[in-house]
């Protein structure tokens, strides 16, 4: 039993076939991001709590990894009350079959969504208009304080993939692997809305059409714990749909963790991803930065 996040990979002893690790944690977090505009960073301070589980099963040539993460966070809004600012549900599974030396095959299935309804709020009453994906008016009101944008578990995002897995390094303190294959993506928006524009009369919210794509995917993973109280991991994901291979979706996540006490860690996360410029300019590489003082307990079982 210890503290922090559950690190990947979960190592198995020679006599073990599977290991399960669970973590319950709370964060005090400071964040900084420019996901809305290249020239403007938004700073925030919030409280997060999460539940994380990871299961790894290994038998002969087969290695199965399953994980889930539920995270909820709140921060003080412009209206002076605490609102939910972080609501994330993730489920994922990966199967790797060793074929020859460090080469193998992989299959993966991932899902992302949220568990609470989402709302848009402003400090003063405002007017709004809801439109369908073609711009036709669905609903219009004025003098409201909030607008419901999504139901629980909507939108929901699926991604599947399969291909070649290469183990670059596999040591007790260092692991790195490369994956390359065919990926599928389904973004299901349902009856959800996103803010589209704001004019002198009202705020406009518009529906999005569901999207289904197939393309090329690649992932580079790296993790190390060279020192007992410091760990670092990095994952680069790249996806290019066959419809337009130049339209690359990129996400690069870095995690650095410093263990302060038995159940207290200081975590830093930096995420890089491509974003659309809201002012109409060129797309750019946006970044999110978070510094977390994390209080957690990890339970581990293996057989």
What does this structure look like?
The structure is a single chain. The protein is an all-beta fold. The protein contains no helices and 16 strands. It has a twelve-stranded antiparallel beta barrel with strand order 1-2-3-4-5-8-9-12-13-14-15-16.
Task: Pick out its properties.
about 300 residues; mainly beta; four-stranded mixed β-sheet; 16 strands; about 75% strand; globular
Q: How many H/I helices?
A: 0
Note the main sheet.
Answer: 12 strands, antiparallel, barrel
Helix content: under 10%
On the 0-100 scale, what is the average pLDDT?
85
Distance between the termini: 16 Å
Query: Hey, roughly how much beta strand do the residues contain?
Result: over 45%
Structural class: mainly beta
Topology (SSEs and partners):
Elements: E1 18-37, E2 40-59, E3 62-76, E4 82-100, E5 103-113, E6 118-131, E7 137-150, E8 156-171, E9 174-188, E10 193-198, E11 203-207, E12 211-227, E13 230-241, E14 249-261, E15 264-275, E16 284-302
Parallel strand pairs: 6-11
Antiparallel strand pairs: 1-2, 1-16, 2-3, 3-4, 4-5, 5-8, 6-7, 8-9, 9-12, 10-11, 12-13, 13-14, 14-15, 15-16
Short description:
By secondary structure, the protein is mainly β.
